[in-house]
Design goal:
Number of strands: 13
Strand order of the largest sheet: 1-2-3-5-4-6-7-8-9-10-11-13-12
Number of helices: 9
Helix content: 25-40%
Shape: globular
Strand content: 25-35%
Order of helices and strands: EHEHEHEEEHEHEHEHEHEHEE
Number of domains: 1
Distance between the termini: 57 Å
Structural class: alpha/beta
């Protein structure tokens, strides 16, 4: 059986009146007004006692930051409680979205993502920033502060064009990030970088631990050089190349600089990719590298794994 509630917040006492022990799917979608909604242990106790057959949860709590509203109350309990064994064993994963004036906290069944890490479900907490609107009533720091009181963030996805400087400010607030997915990024000429921005970049190089990068839009070689400098721990790069010519150009560059990079695994997304295209890339690698490698195609994704020579 399935129960879906979408209305003003409901207390757990009132929720008891609407459920039965045979409930298998529970969907809750309402605005956040009570700090108890973020008490993972309270939910755990409630589910164990009243919902022993629950298989799937779809929780959405909307925290509103609109004009004229006070900043929402911060959660002040122990962080990362939604990463406990109770939630992980059931593969109910916390995801957070910043969309316009709201933060949405969602708990949904596990779904595979591009960075795939099934060995550690406790580090799948994912943050999506839908926009970087400068007219928000609060700063991005305040939004992130609300989130970080509840949980660490390990994966970040940004859907709007973002400047490298703004990205650096965000990443410095999220030191536990392992992966980064960018829709589009704008770069300044190095000559135009201010002293403050330069300090941000240096701090980011020292602090960030990002190992996987996904770019939705292609960028130039100079931009890659800068990204590789800022993210020195990268070992995986995925990019939507749009066409074979760009893929060929980029792969040649990456192979040429392979000895100086940690990146060994690449994923090129190419519309209408086929085995003929994959074989061309295979020959290109043979011509431009002495390293062993594997190459395979999954639909329109071509994966290249460079194997370090002993």
């Amino acid at each position: 059986t399935h129960l879906y509630i979408h209305e003003d917040p409901i207390t757990l006492n009132n929720l008891k009146l609407l459920i039965n022990e045979n409930l298998e799917v529970l969907s809750l979608d309402f605005a956040y007004e009570d700090i108890e909604y973020f008490d993972a242990y309270l939910w755990e106790s409630f589910i164990l006692k009243y919902l022993p057959k629950l298989e799937k949860t779809y929780f959405t709590f909307d925290t509103y930051y609109g004009n004229g509203y006070e900043s929402p109350i911060l959660y002040n309990g122990m962080p990362n409680k939604f990463n406990s064994s109770f939630w992980i064993q059931r593969k109910w994963i916390l995801e957070i979205k910043i969309i316009f004036d709201s933060i949405y906290y969602l708990i949904n069944p596990y779904k595979k993502r591009w960075y795939e890490n099934e060995n550690d479900y406790s580090k799948l907490v994912h943050l999506i920033i839908e926009d970087d609107d400068p007219v928000k009533p609060f700063t991005i720091n305040q939004y992130l502060n609300h989130i970080l009181n509840l949980t660490q963030i390990f994966h970040l996805e940004i859907h709007e064009i973002i400047s490298l400087n703004k990205l650096s400010q965000i990443l410095l607030l999220l030191p536990d990030l392992q992966t980064l997915h960018l829709d589009s990024i704008s770069f300044l000429n190095l000559e135009d970088i201010s002293d403050e921005e330069f300090v941000h970049f240096i701090a980011l190089i020292k602090k960030n631990q990002i190992k996987k990068l996904f770019l939705e839009k292609r960028i130039g070689i100079d931009a890659f050089e800068l990204l590789f400098t800022i993210f020195p721990h990268l070992n995986y790069l995925q990019i939507n190349c749009r066409d074979y010519q760009y893929t060929q150009f980029l792969l040649k560059y990456l192979l040429k600089h392979q000895n100086n990079k940690l990146i060994r695994l690449f994923c090129f997304s190419i519309p209408f990719a086929d085995d003929k295209m994959m074989n061309k890339l295979k020959n290109l690698i043979i011509q431009n590298s002495t390293s062993n490698f594997t190459i395979q195609r999954v639909s329109d994704h071509i994966y290249v794994n460079i194997i370090e020579n002993n």
